């Protein structure tokens, strides 16, 4: 049976939407994508029971109230209803041991929902930023290196110690949740991937694999779909 993959979505107050590349990647890897609008409150567990894997897509900044900070002057746009929905979704999905793949904002949600926190703006809040994490090159261009930790699941999936990724973030994971380990870093030390120590597949990456055209993206999505298959 093909697994159903729930995708979180962007919203502008009138529309809920996801970039096509996410759906295409899921379909190519053998899954069935569905969009999860953020209106649900009470029935989140019921919704999660109907899907086999959860894809946390990219988007704007996360409200720092979820890690007990006031908004920094460089905090970007926040979407309160989306934040509340996704935090709750992830808490339940972790409890239910659902495979979760977090991309960019999705990795940050994973970390914060399980007790970690973020830099609200790496350029202002972290010293020794040496590379461009908000790349000006096109989306599909892999611009900076990440170093993948030995022994990590990510390393196993990728089969390589370092690789090039694209980068579209000004926020980043600061303190990693106790439920996760760091699985990759950029050359300047910025955390670029985390993974759960307990679950078979709960991975967050700070880059956008859905937009990359190389095999690394295929490997990640295929592993995610494989883990989401045959769970019912
Ligand atoms: Mn980066």
Word description of this protein:
By secondary structure, this protein is α/β, with parallel strands linked by helices. It has one domain: 3-Layer(aba) Sandwich (Rossmann fold), CATH 3.40.50. Helices cover 28% and strands 22% of the residues. It has helices at residues 20-28, 44-49, 80-95, 105-113, 122-125, 153-158, 215-228, and strands at 4-8, 10-11, 16-17, 32-36, 53-56, 100-103, 118-119, 144-148, 162-165, 172-173, 180-186, 191-196, 202-205. It has a nine-stranded mixed sheet, with helices on both faces. Helix 3 crosses helix 4 (105-113). Manganese (II) ion is lined by residues 133, 144, 167, 169, 186, 190, 192, 206. The site of manganese (II) ion has 8 residues, from loops.
Strand content: 15-25%
CATH level-four homologous superfamily name:
Class I glutamine amidotransferase (GATase) domain
Structural class: alpha/beta
Distance between the termini: 9 Å
Sum up the overall morphology in one term.
globular
The sequence of SSEs as H and E is EEEHEHEHEHEHEHEEEEEH
Question: Largest sheet at a glance?
Answer: 9 strands, mixed
Q: How does CATH name the architecture?
A: 3-Layer(aba) Sandwich
Low-confidence stretches: none
**Overall structural domain count:** 1
Mean pLDDT: 96
Number of strands: 13
Percent range of helical residues: 25-40%
What is the strand arrangement across the widest sheet? 4-1-5-6-13-12-11-8-9
The ligands found in this model are: manganese (II) ion
Q: Might you state the CATH topology name?
A: Rossmann fold
Radius of gyration: 16 Å
Task: Please report the first level of CATH classification, the CATH class.
Answer: Alpha Beta
Helix run count: 7
């Amino acid at each position: 049976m093909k697994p159903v993959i729930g995708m979180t979505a962007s919203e502008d107050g009138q529309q809920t939407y996801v970039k096509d590349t996410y759906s295409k990647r899921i379909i190519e890897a053998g899954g069935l994508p569905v969009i999860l609008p953020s209106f649900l409150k009470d029935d989140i567990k019921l919704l999660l029971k109907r899907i086999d894997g959860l894809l946390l897509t990219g988007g704007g900044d996360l409200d720092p109230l979820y890690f007990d900070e006031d908004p920094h002057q460089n905090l970007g746009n926040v979407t309160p209803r989306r934040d509340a929905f996704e935090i709750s979704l992830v808490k339940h999905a972790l409890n239910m041991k659902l495979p979760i793949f977090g991309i960019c904002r999705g990795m940050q949600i994973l970390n914060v929902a399980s007790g970690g926190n973020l830099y609200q703006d790496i350029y202002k809040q972290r010293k020794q930023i040496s590379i461009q994490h908000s790349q000006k090159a096109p989306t599909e261009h892999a611009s900076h290196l990440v170093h993948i930790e030995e022994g990590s699941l990510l390393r196993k999936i990728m089969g390589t110690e370092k690789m090039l990724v694209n980068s579209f973030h000004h926020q980043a994971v600061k303190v990693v949740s106790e439920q996760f380990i760091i699985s990759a870093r950029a050359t300047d030390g910025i955390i670029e991937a985390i993974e759960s120590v307990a679950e078979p597949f709960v991975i967050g990456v700070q880059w956008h694999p859905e937009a990359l055209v190389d095999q690394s993206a295929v490997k990640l999505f295929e592993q995610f779909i494989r883990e989401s298959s045959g769970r019912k």
